[in-house]
């Protein structure tokens, strides 16, 4: 997980190529797989043709899929980024159902930029895209959090599907991230995902799981949907699936048929180097139990960060699953309520009963930027996310060992404490103006 800059300074990389480097930089099994294809003289690009490299990748992929899907799945290779894969998945369900509308969720990776580009690009003229609330604790859309907040989010989805007053016709599909990454590292409640699965199955609405950022062991299970035990009808796979090289795949139930047209699946669906690197990565993660390692190490890192957050008023919440971790930065000087009482601490934002007695504090993107800079000074690379770019994100490789994790946590703790020592009022004047990312920017991150 170590990289070196032009001046010879070394950094611990917790960005991991926006999650594409499941095994870290230049892992031997990935390099060997790439060299083998190059040395063989085989074509480097085979478009939609069958090749031994593609067969090996597909075989390894099927070994990892949820059993309910692997038994009856088809695989479609798409263009080099997640945008192509999402567009392909939506064309698939539209062709299968004869319907056009899509249900998606606020804050999603495929929904954050203006105009919902990944989904809207594949939409027929006049197709309706409806955004539903995504449950979370700290900034619950209903101001409740916990199980009650998730229940309300599920009821909202049900009312949109069934309520004649919603004005939303039965959709072609529903697309959801099991953990929102760019949305601020928000793990979906397992019970809520199971409820969505029942709602969609009962109404013959295909459920699409967007595993672009969560797949290949990142969250502590090989695929994040496995935490809840659901089997989606379609899975969108990208990021780590290509072993650090551009590759996207759509896996779907065989009874959904095939896309009516190849239009828009991209120019590079047959990248043999990416398939070789991807097969090597999938096999190494599976054979070495790296998903289980991510679950164990991630829990330890989350525990230590939550303990630290209890001492820092500038941290609103620490959350995550496996090695997908987020630290939300907030205004430490904002009063909790009309009386100006200070919050009881980040860990007390949502009590065990799921009710919220205190409102969340305002997001502080300027503090997140400051933490990122302090981390860089200490030799640690982190990412920022969330709708306000106020969440410090950690995506360490699945191969991270305990000593490296401790070094990451030590440097991050130093950075957080350094930022906390500076009065927040001194930073308000430097509040960054964050322009919305262009669709091309987000597509690049998804690849």
Pick out its properties.
7-stranded mixed beta sheet, Aspartate Aminotransferase, domain 1, 4-stranded antiparallel beta sheet, PyrdxlP-dep_Trfase, alpha/beta, Aspartate Aminotransferase, domain 2, 447 residues, 16 strands, EC 2.6.1.76, 2 domains, Diaminobutyrate--2-oxoglutarate transaminase, 14 helices, diaminobutyrate-2-oxoglutarate transaminase activity, globular
Describe this entry's structure for a reader.
It comes from Streptomyces griseomycini. Belongs to the class-III pyridoxal-phosphate-dependent aminotransferase family. It is an enzyme of class 2 (transferase). There is one protein chain. This protein is α/β, with parallel strands linked by helices. The chain has two domains: 128 residues, Aspartate Aminotransferase, domain 1 (Alpha-Beta Complex), CATH 3.90.1150; 262 residues, 3-Layer(aba) Sandwich (Aspartate Aminotransferase, domain 2). It is built from 14 helices and 16 strands. The protein has a seven-stranded mixed β-sheet with strand order 3-11-10-9-6-4-5. A four-stranded antiparallel β-sheet has the order 12-13-16-15, with helices on one face. The chain has a three-stranded mixed β-sheet with strand order 1-2-14. Helix 3 packs parallel to helix 9 and helix 11 packs across helix 12. It is globular.
